[in-house]
Amino acid sequence: MFLLLIFILYIIMFTTGGCMKKIVKLMLGVLFFLIVFLLVFVLFLRAPIIKDDYQVGKWYKVLLDGVKDNKGNDYYFLIKKGRENKVIINFYGGGLSINNETALNRKSYYIDNIKYEELNHLVGISKDDKDNPFNDYTFINIPYVTGDFHIGMNSENKLLKQDGYIRFIMIMDKVKEYIDNPEVLLVTGYSAGGFASSILSHTIFNDYFKDVQNKNVLVDASLLISDEWEHILKDVWKSPEFITSRIKTNNIVLDNLKYLSENNKDVKIMYVSSLRDKTLIKYQNYLDNKEFSSNVSLGKTFQNNLEVMVNELLFLPNTSVYIWSDVVGDDLLTTHTITMIDFVNKKYNGIKISDYIVNVINGDNKSYGMDLFMESKRNERKGI
């Protein structure tokens, strides 16, 4: 296809002149760039399907037999076998679908095509980088194409199969073929994946890795308040009853982290959020008002909800928080997720997020960024 198009463009270039020839040259340059990019993508960036002779330190896809995404593409999880006997299970995010309106508007609310997540393993916490303290860990990266925080069992919805929990169980059963008993286990996720890490960690620790001595959970950019969570889990996503029964308040993450802490005394919990997460504010506005937008006032509400939540979290044993801020516009809102951006080098509160996580894993549960709440209120009073 590309070769035929190049051939046609060359014919046009040699049979025309002037402005048209310049346009054709420009088009040829763009085509050449696309071809090079596709070759690099296929040969070097895209993870191959795993085989028996897989290599340490290389990414592979592990297919789930007969499982597809909403577009009919083969569904898989990714694995990179590390040099250390330490493991990170990393749930991807990618939106939310809670009704027919959101299910119909895929581009606005959620990802249902696994191809959009093809390169996620190359950035953030799982990035191959000598300065990444987790570079030698074994990674299990779990793509997200169901809009249900990875916890649904609704395979009957014709608009979107929300069967994330079924996929999760299939993945964990498969993971045990590659991982035995790690010294350290960190269950994490960003955005919708952060909700998943708060909800599914108990299952991972109790059904799959009971004997791990150093257990850790990291929830990144996951806060949505709603009185509808029980209805959504029970009636829309058809989540397992043992998960739905944990919901006691309008804060699904807080409820699940309390449950996790009460039933897993040795687990260390980390909660990470920017001060006024613009993306979460849009989803919160949709839950409250069916409007997918953000503004300064909604940012203040989010910050207040966040402050209430982290203050409750800090009453739990072995729990710490990392709050950060990078106001990026006139609306005074902040970036969504930190474990999926410049994870290795970014520093807030005088410490890199990566160093904070390492410290917690090693037993130092110090929190960072709590002073940002007071600082923000002072600035507000000053009109800043």
Task: Summarize the model shown.
By secondary structure, the chain is an alpha/beta fold.
Can you give a write-up of this model?
- It is a single chain.
- With 384 residues, the protein is of the alpha/beta class.
- The chain has two domains: 1-45; 57-382, 3-Layer(aba) Sandwich (Rossmann fold).
- Helices cover 40% and strands 15% of the residues.
- It has helices at residues 2-15, 18-45, 100-104, 106-109, 164-175, 192-208, 229-236, 241-244, 252-263, 278-289, 296-313, 353-361, 371-382, and strands at 59-68, 74-80, 86-91, 138-142, 184-190, 214-220, 268-274, 319-324, 347-348, 351-352.
- An eight-stranded mixed sheet has the order 1-2-4-3-5-6-7-8, with helices on both faces. Strands 9-10 form a two-stranded antiparallel sheet.
- A hairpin with a 5-residue loop joins strand 1 (59-68) and strand 2.
- The termini are far apart.
- The relative contact order is 0.10.
